[in-house]
Design brief:
This protein is α/β, with parallel strands linked by helices. The protein has helices spanning 15-26, 33-41, 45-52, 54-69, 86-95, 105-113, 127-145, 157-169; strands spanning 4-8, 29-32, 74-77, 96-102, 148-151. The chain has a single domain (4-166), classed as Rossmann fold, CATH 3.40.50.300. Helix 1 crosses helix 8. The longest helix is centred in the last third of the chain and has 19 residues, at 127-145. The radius of gyration is 15 Å and the shape is globular.
Length: 180
């Protein structure tokens, strides 16, 4: 029986806010893969990318996903690129219902502008072009990894949480492969 919920999706789709709210509402522990990576590396995500590179970041991410996949009764806030390594999804799938949060490129840009400096992959001149490139590349990975999908573009955190709770009510905590 799967006792975890893993939220996947691109940056600024609401994973952190939704995961924290959902964990509280379901009386589960909140776990952030990015926070665990920062603790393990003893430096910020930005510094890991700058000093060690994305490959090193992804290596630490694999270690962290292995750890969180063995936990029970947690809501996992996955970093946006967690789907890039199939091993991560295979591990998450064993213990978690995987929910993909999506948003339009414009909504992602609007939300990520509020977090300037916190998005190493968006530290480029044409942020909109970069968002679209990354989304286009990652979309197939997200789609194949998800049990369910929710577009958060026009929803509040509370509305997304309610949608997830409805999914869980119809889900007997087993994999059904349904997409919303």
């Amino acid at each position: 029986m799967k006792t975890n919920i893993a939220l996947i999706g691109f940056m600024a789709t609401g994973k952190t806010s939704v995961a924290k709210s959902l964990a509280k509402k379901l009386n589960k522990k909140y776990v952030s893969t990015d926070e665990l990576i920062v603790r393990k590396a003893k430096k910020s995500v930005q510094r890991i990318f700058m000093e060690d590179g994305e490959i090193r970041f992804r290596e630490i991410e694999i270690e962290v996903v292995k750890e969180v996949s063995s936990m029970q009764n947690v809501v996992i806030d996955c970093g946006g690129g967690v789907v890039l390594n199939k091993i991560n999804i295979d591990r998450l799938r064993k213990s978690s219902i995987i929910i993909l949060l999506t948003a339009t490129p414009d909504e992602i840009l609007k939300r990520s502008l509020k977090q300037k400096g916190e998005r190493p992959l968006l530290e480029v001149e044409d942020r909109r072009k970069k968002v679209i490139e990354l989304l286009d590349f990652r979309r197939p990975f997200y789609e194949v990894s998800a049990d369910y999908k929710i577009d958060t573009s026009n929803l509040t955190v509370e509305e997304v949480v309610e949608k997830i709770i409805q999914i869980l009510k119809g889900e007997n905590h087993g994999y059904s492969g349904k997409k919303e």
